């Protein structure tokens, strides 16, 4: 009989993430360095556990009209069917069609962080996404409607008391449709998600928030299926446009 325990494995995964986040918070005094360390912990987790068709990275997002998003801490994008990803001097730029989700990664969450993440989400969602009909052996599938890009926040701690109470939901509710934060994880306390049926945020003070968040994220990605077929010619049209110096 095996001595393995799934509960123990998930608990170990959560404890490892929480300890890494806490260590990055304790080890660095400079806010920027501390923030970079926190982002790295979440990116490492996602890179390790997400299926390889997905990639998570700090990036800007661009559309075929030449518009760019703000820089996003964590962009989860398709790496299997997206034909090009720009990388200049370590700065990653991802076509809007390939993006599934965007997250802001912070040491601690508060009203300013929520507002900041909402604006970052809007900077991605306002971008144009192309979609072409998909040819196959028996004919052509119609162009796929690009799935909604979902947005979130991941953090170790909360500046609120209680951490997962009404101040959190009040800050989350203060958003337009384009700004809405859909999911989030406060690793030391719990997870939250917007529920379409009730049009409200559901709070789950799980004993293993990091593991619960990861499972919820993968489930959401599965429901997105595959990204639309990108109109590569719409991007290629910029080859004849003088570059901006």
Gist of the model:
The chain is 35% helix and 27% strand. It has 245 residues and is α/β, with parallel strands linked by helices. The strands form 2 sheets. It has a 9-stranded mixed sheet, sandwiched between helices.
Structural write-up:
There is one protein chain. 35% of the residues are buried. Helix 1 packs antiparallel against helix 2 (31-49) and helix 3 (111-125) runs parallel beside helix 4. The chain starts with 5 loop residues before the first helix and ends in a 9-residue tail after the last helix. The strands form two sheets. It has a nine-stranded mixed beta sheet with strand order 3-4-1-2-5-8-9-10-11, with helices on both faces. The protein has one domain (6-106, 117-237). A hairpin with a 2-residue loop joins strand 6 (134-136) and strand 7. The chain has helices spanning 6-27, 31-49, 111-125, 166-173, 209-224, 232-236; strands at 54-62, 72-78, 86-88, 91-95, 99-109, 134-136, 139-141, 150-158, 183-186, 190-195, 200-204. The mean pLDDT is 89. It has 245 residues and is α/β, with parallel strands linked by helices.
């Amino acid at each position: 009989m095996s001595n393995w325990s799934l509960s123990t494995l998930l608990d170990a995964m959560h404890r490892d993430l929480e300890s890494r986040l806490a260590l990055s918070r304790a080890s660095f005094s400079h806010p920027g360095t501390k923030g970079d360390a926190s982002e790295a912990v979440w990116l490492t987790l996602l890179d390790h556990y997400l299926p390889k068709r997905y990639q998570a990275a700090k990036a800007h997002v661009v559309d075929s009209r030449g518009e760019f998003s703000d820089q996003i801490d964590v962009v989860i994008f398709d790496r299997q069917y997206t034909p090009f990803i720009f990388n200049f001097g370590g700065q990653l730029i991802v076509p809007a069609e390939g993006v599934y989700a965007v997250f802001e990664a912070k040491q601690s969450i508060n009203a300013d962080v929520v507002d900041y993440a909402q604006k970052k989400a809007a900077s991605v969602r306002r971008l144009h996404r192309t979609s072409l009909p998909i040819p196959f052996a028996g004919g052509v599938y119609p162009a796929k409607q690009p799935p909604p890009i979902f947005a979130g926040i991941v953090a170790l701690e909360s500046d609120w008391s209680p951490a997962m109470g009404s101040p959190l939901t009040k800050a989350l509710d203060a958003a337009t449709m384009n700004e809405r934060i859909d999911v989030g994880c406060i690793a030391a306390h719990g997870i939250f998600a917007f529920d379409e049926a009730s049009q409200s945020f559901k709070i789950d003070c799980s004993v293993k928030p990091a593991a619960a968040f990861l499972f919820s994220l993968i489930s959401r990605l599965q429901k997105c299926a595959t990204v639309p077929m990108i109109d590569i010619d719409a991007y290629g049209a910029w080859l004849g446009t003088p570059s901006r110096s």
